Structure formats: structure tokens, C-alpha cells
Automatic annotation (TrEMBL):
Belongs to the KHG/KDPG aldolase family. Homotrimer. It comes from the Bacteria. One of its GO terms (molecular function) is 2-dehydro-3-deoxy-phosphogluconate aldolase activity. Pfam families: Aldolase. It comes from Chenggangzhangella methanolivorans. InterPro entries: Aldlse_KDPG_KHG, Aldolase_TIM. This is Bifunctional 4-hydroxy-2-oxoglutarate aldolase/2-dehydro-3-deoxy-phosphogluconate aldolase.
Amino acid sequence: KTERLAAILSQTPVIPVLTFSDAKSGLETAKALRDGGLTVLEVTMRTPKALEALKAIVDEVEGVTVGAGTILEPEHVQQAIESGASFLVSPGSSSRLLGAASEAPVPWLPGVSTVSEAMQLSERGATFAKFFPAGPAGGPAFLKSLVAPLPELHFVPTGGIDMSNVQDYLKLRNVACCGGSWVAPQDAIDAGDWGKIQSLAKEAAALKAR
Ligand code: 3PG
């Protein structure tokens, strides 16, 4: 599963973090992001229609790899997989989730925001973690400090990232790619402004990961 996760994360400099209130806006947003060049998407489990939107994208939008985000409960793991998620993302990790995710057939990207959490995941064999909330938890300077003591661990910083600071993360040798909602802002989704989402995606897709 680690190799599969590595392959997914290496496909893109940026993973859009998406929250949908209906399947149709999910479909249109996913197409706009793909057409802009972003092909790995994270659909958060924060709304009643999240699973429906995830499944619709998996079934109907070609050329994208779709993960389920904001996985907080072991029950979410099962539901996300049944809806077709290719990977799972959590803002942190808990012992219940660790158990459920290790048995899941798809890879899991757990969140960390401290050195001890990062060490605990390393101990369990993880090589990738979401760094969340990246800005408030210490930003690029924090991640840079982990390169020497934890050289095997690679991060997907998410939280407070946009075009103004994304390169500060992407240039670090322990950053795989970045996550964020700036490429598909909620107001653009709500307004159906797919052109805006496509152009934001294009700008982000042109970024170079290390
Ligand atoms: C997430 O769950 O990863 C965050 O809500 C994304 O953070 P952002 O909106 O600051 O990009």
C-alpha cells in the first residue's frame, strides 16, 4: 500500500481538498480540476452528500484518482471504500482509526502536527503523513526541521496553503506534494464558476514538486 500511495502522491504537486453539498457540483468541479491538469482529488466526508459525490466522480469522471478526506471514524473507512475511494486521508490519527485503516484495502494518509506523532507513525512503518494544519502548526520551517531527525518520513502539508506560499513547502526535500482548498474555493463551487476552478488548477498543476 505504501508504493500505491507513493505513486498517487507523485502524480501531482497539489491535491485539491473538496467539500460538496451535492453530486452535480462534485462532478463539474472534478472535471474542471482535471481539465486544468490536477488529477488527484480529495473529497472530504464533511457533508451528507459527500459519499454520493465521491461515487459520482469515481464512476463518471475519467482520468482522476479520488480519495476520501476527513476520515475520522472506522465506519468512514468502510463507507469510503464502498463508494470507490482510492485512498483515505485523516486530519490526525487515533488508535481506532489506525486499526481500521491498516486492514483497509487502500492506502491511508494520516495527519500529524507534532514530532512525537510523526515518530509514532514512523514506528508503525509509515513513510507518508499529512502535515495538518500546516500553517498554524509551524509551516515550512517546522517541516524543514524534521529532515535531519526523520529523513524517511515525507509529508503532504495541508491547511493555510495557497499560491503565495505553496512553493515554500514544495521545495523541501521531505514534502511529497501539498493539499488545499484554494484551487477550488467554496464560493466558486457554489457559484458554478468552473472556468475559475479550471484556471486555478492550471496554475497549480504547473508547479514543480521537487
Ligand atoms: C483540510 O481538511 O485538509 C483543510 O480543510 C484544507 O485546508 P485549507 O482550506 O486551508 O486549504
